[in-house]
Amino acid sequence: MKIVVLDGYGANPGDLSWEGLREIGELAVYDRTAAEDTVARAAAADIVLTNKVVLGRSEMAQLPRLRYIGVLATGYNVVDIEAAHEYGITVTNVPAYSTESVVQMVFAHLLTVTNRTEHYTVQNRNGRWTDSPDFCYWDTPLMELAGKTFGIVGFGHIGKRVGEVALAFGMCVKALTSKTVDQLPADVQKADLTELLATSDVLSLHCPLTDSTYHMINRETLRQMKSTAILINTGRGPLVSDADVAEALQQGVISAYCADVLTEEPPRVDNPLLRQPQAYITPHIAWATYEARVRLLDVAIQNVRAFVAGHPQNVV
């Protein structure tokens, strides 16, 4: 049995081991695979693992040996699921491995805006505090989270955990979710998008990317938000219009945008968000803590073993 990992570097840049897969079959690991090389590299494979390399209908049609695709992520939009079913290919993902890490990034971003610790650290390395005539100084607004409203779009594993942490900060939590009121924690209020936009001091996006959520944050919805609002996106880049958010920041429609994801990754050099001082952008690393990647590879290998044993798990 031949196993091919098409783009292993993202999950394992060298600090983890692929040994569990080598115990199952003959293994070839590529750090990265260009689209034009996908079929050639996977041609002899029974099992293919991918993170961001696309496996669509045209690729599957040229891979008659392929019987299993393991997605090294929770989202599986890189695979044409309908085509996989037609070709008899099992597809699995790795759910919920990065929940704690993503939640941590949400609040790292939020506290960056409210407390600006890195800003002051850099200034003080350059002597700002030592030159101060007073025992303290600040040149940015400082905001307390307690009592503020935290809006959450999507209340799955990550959204629910984000809500728990927001509550620990003493915030009022509202959620846009398909869950009923009875299914929500007692201290979380169910709300529609209009209410979230109008009342949230912090709005955090944790919903799937679908036709109905594509660019759900746009020029029109941004103008329904508070001018002091902080928008956070650690979900999917296209949930927002990058251009509209950049415009809103420039015009003071909202106060800050925190994102770990963008519509195009890596971003184009002319992405307008990269030039906005109130846009705080990290390079899609919320999922990438060491602990989360250990869980990712462990489950991915377990998925392959389960498939080989005839009882696949985490099938999508």
Question: How would you explain this protein's 3D organization?
Answer:
Helix content is 31%, strand content 15%. With 316 residues, it is of the alpha/beta class. It has a seven-stranded parallel sheet with strand order 8-7-6-9-10-11-12, sandwiched between helices. Strands 2-1-3-4-5 form a five-stranded parallel sheet. Helix 7 links the parallel strand 6 and strand 7.
Secondary structure layout:
Layout: E1 2-5, H1 19-22, E2 26-29, H2 38-42, E3 47-50, H3 57-61, E4 68-71, H4 81-86, E5 90-92, H5 99-115, H6 117-125, E6 149-153, H7 157-168, E7 172-176, E8 188-190, H8 193-199, E9 202-205, H9 219-222, E10 230-233, H10 242-251, E11 256-259, E12 279-281, H11 290-308
Parallel strand pairs: 1-2, 1-3, 3-4, 4-5, 6-7, 6-9, 7-8, 9-10, 10-11, 11-12
Helix pairs in contact: 5-7
Q: Which segments are poorly predicted (pLDDT under 50) over 5 or more consecutive residues?
A: none
How would a crystallographer describe the biggest sheet?
Answer: 7 strands, parallel
Helical stretch count?
11
Indicate the overall shape: globular
Helix content estimate? 25-40%
Tally of strands: 12
Secondary structural class: alpha/beta
Tell me the distance between the termini.
22 Å
Strand order of the largest sheet: 8-7-6-9-10-11-12
Order of helices and strands: EHEHEHEHEHHEHEEHEHEHEEH
Strand content: 5-15%
Q: Over all CA atoms, what is the radius of gyration?
A: 22 Å
Calculate the mean pLDDT score and round it: 97
